[in-house]
Amino acid sequence: MKEDILHNLEIINDRIRKACEKAGRPLDEVRLLLATKTVSAEHIKTALENGQTLIAENRVQELKEKYDELKDTQHENHFIGHLQTNKIKDILKYDVVCVQSLDRLDLTERLHQRLVSEGKTMEVLIQVNTSAEESKFGVHPNEAVELTRKVSEFSTLKIKGLMTIGLFSAETEKVRPCFKILKNLQQEIISQNIPNVEMKELSMGMSGDLETAIEEGATIVRVGTAVFGARVHPDSFYWNERV
Ligand SMILES: *Cc1c(COP(=O)(O)O)cnc(C)c1O
């Protein structure tokens, strides 16, 4: 398994390098984020000890379970799942530095309250539902600018950009329009010059479509299966949860 992970990381980094070359973008503009849902702490550690620095969970429960085993290995933790307000305190406790899935105002308010009471700040990305699929979370593209504006008013939250999951399709050309929507929203928000808003990050692209995402401007690609192997549960299990 260890050899598989190292080999897969080489392949992924190679794919990222080629995609950057093709798109005429500098390699250091794109970061690889490892989506570690269902992956054991041991396997995550293998990746962290071999050049990887950025990981993310979808569920607070998994974040909690792996925390002790990973806390002494240097890394940066993001959160990419649907976040319930009653789990916010755990997000802070387990050292998440960026919530990529901020998609609504009540979550924003509660996150802010908690951050104020702990004297902390948090990086966030606004998650946009670019595929119009019922099953996915994220703010509707038409409401993304407005939500960004509202979130920007909370002093504890540092908006760094946008995130999307994109259409779940094996045909990357069908996913491309989703990435374009995110890029266009980024440009629109930049043009509005909203105080307290940075629009540097575009978190988009996964195992199957990272090349397309990089062509369309991704700065963070989120990869799970292509590094750690197939998961038992389908993605809908993670993307629909209301638990
Ligand atoms: C699982 C997951 C990924 C990675 O998906 P793979 O197809 O395994 O690469 C990316 N983003 C989110 C939000 C995920 O839940």
From TrEMBL:
Gene3D superfamilies: Alanine racemase. Pfam families: Ala_racemase_N. One of its GO terms (molecular function) is pyridoxal phosphate binding. Keywords: Pyridoxal phosphate. It comes from the Bacteria. Its cofactor is pyridoxal 5'-phosphate. Residues 12-231 form the Alanine racemase N-terminal domain. The modification N6-(pyridoxal phosphate)lysine is found at residue 37. HAMAP family: PLP_homeostasis. Pyridoxal 5'-phosphate (PLP)-binding protein, which is involved in PLP homeostasis. PANTHER family: PROLINE SYNTHETASE CO-TRANSCRIBED BACTERIAL HOMOLOG PROTEIN, PYRIDOXAL PHOSPHATE HOMEOSTASIS PROTEIN. Belongs to the pyridoxal phosphate-binding protein YggS/PROSC family. This is Pyridoxal phosphate homeostasis protein.
